[in-house]
Amino acid sequence: MIYEGNLKKMSTTHESPVKYYMTFGEEKINMNGLIGKQIRIEYSGRINCIRCNALTQKSFHQGYCYSCFISAPECDAGVLHPEKDQSHLGISRDMEWAKQNSLIDHYVYLAITGNLKVGVTRHTQIPFRWIDQGAIKAIKLAKTPYRYLAGIIEVDLKKYVSDKTNKDKMLQTKDADLDLIKLKNEIAEKLSNDLKKFISFDNTIFKINYPYDYNIKNFVSLSLDKTPTINGKLAGIKGQYLLFENGEILNVRTHNGYYVKLEIL
After folding, report:
1. The whole model's pTM is what?
2. What are 240-254's pLDDT values in tens digits?
3. Cα–Cα distance, 130 to 119 (Å, whole number)
């Protein structure tokens, strides 16, 4: 069986374990069903912008051509750095887009990937943001009416908690003996008084299991630019990573727009 098309971030459903799907045109592939099977991914050398479909020699911001990178609202500074979002002031590359994506409820959260991290996401992206990051547990810390405020809280908390994910630790971690509610309460107390009013009273702990058995200890990150053909037995999936039996890993999201053939051997 051969599928062909531009790579896109895998879509997911929050089940136990998470179900992953890869889409090529009208074809939707259940990636969980390929675990334990030999697959080949062959990159053609072609990249199409995931927004305008234009050919581009280089991918910017995980899948965009340079023109879209400097003009599209999805690539605005406030997307990567929420504290830089200015849509609440009426400043945006596209205010209609901002009304749907920035001027809506956002959560600041704590998640356990390989380490404890703080992050920001739109309410519509729970729990998918956590799944994409490979979190095994997460809890809402604060709720804000728009993105900028969530970014300000995150910046305040980055003095105490990292906002980065350690890829290797994330891929190796299947459990963690951390009390998220206790950590949330301790960290929330560090907020300045004007930000404490946004603290969420929802102490639900979201738990996420992945289709991955954690037998691999050492990983080799692959880039389709350097390794255009990948051939191996799929051992599991976590975050947006395909993990192969030999320890090689491919981050699908960083290859958004790459035109490939996926063959099930």
Report:
1. 0.94
2. 999 999 999 999 999
3. 9
